Amino acid sequence: MTAETAARHGRAMKATAFGALVALVLAVGASAGGALAQDTDIEADARTAIETVFDALTSGDAGQVRPLLAPEFQIVRSDGAAYDKEEYLARSIPHIDSKPTISDLVVTRNGDIVVTRFRLGIEEELDGKKAESNAPQLIIFRITPEAWQVVASANFARLSD
Question: Which residues constitute the domain of residue 119?
Fold first, then answer.
């Protein structure tokens, strides 16, 4: 191979490599764009999941709440009270007077985990104490093929004495 042929061959290899790199970048960008387009509905889906949880809680029926909670579920309240799934279902489902409102919803997702933070306008009693309305809340969901399940929840509503 002559020096000129080797130089042409080198340029052709670089052009091919560059073309492959451009194609890869475009493919990854398109894929990421598709993922972003799919995740634009995540806030709406999260809002629906939160509403589903509070509809079940409003019923006061542990049987309606149970399938929405993951086996490892935990909740912590502003007064330090904490419950696992079975404790919560047995003795700590709140008494809710009316359908709550969700505001300031922020949603993040990584794989099958969705983290939501929001303010909850609600009239409720927790463990026999009136809870502050419009307090911050945090609910973490895991998306399964069957449903969204609550893994953890934090309720920052102050409780009356």
Answer: 42-155
Q: What would the pLDDT profile of 28-71 be if each residue is shown by its tens digit?
A: 333 344 343 346 699 999 999 999 999 999 999 999 999 999 99
Whether the predicted pLDDT of 147 surpasses 60 = yes
80 and 34 housed in the same domain: no
For 106-143, give one letter per residue: b (16+ CB within 10 A) or e.
ebebeeeebbbbbbbebebebeeeebeeeeebebbbbb
**161 belongs to a structural domain:** no
- pLDDT band of residue 14 (cuts 50, 70, 90) is very low
Q: Is 94 part of a structural domain of the chain?
A: yes
Tell me how many domains the chain contains.
Answer: 2
Q: What is the pLDDT of residues 84-115, one digit of tens each?
A: 999 999 988 888 988 999 999 999 999 999 99
CATH number, domain containing residue 73? 3.10.450.50
Q: Are 132 and 158 in contact (CB under 8 A)?
A: yes
- Find out whether 101 and 127 touch, Cβ atoms under 8 Å: no
The answer to whether the CB of 121 falls within 8 A of the CB of 138 is: no
Interatomic CA distance for residues 133 and 81, integer angstroms = 18
Q: Tell whether 64 is covered by a domain.
A: yes
